[in-house]
Amino acid sequence: MAQLIRNEPFDDLISNLFQGFLVRPVGATPQPAAARPFSVEVSEEDKAYVLHAELPGVARDDIHVSIDGNEVTISAEVRNQREERKEGRVLRSERYYGKLYRAFQLGDAIDESASEAKYADGVLELRLPKKAASSARRIEIR
Question: What predicted TM-score, i.e. pTM, was given to this entire model?
Answer without folding.
Answer: 0.63
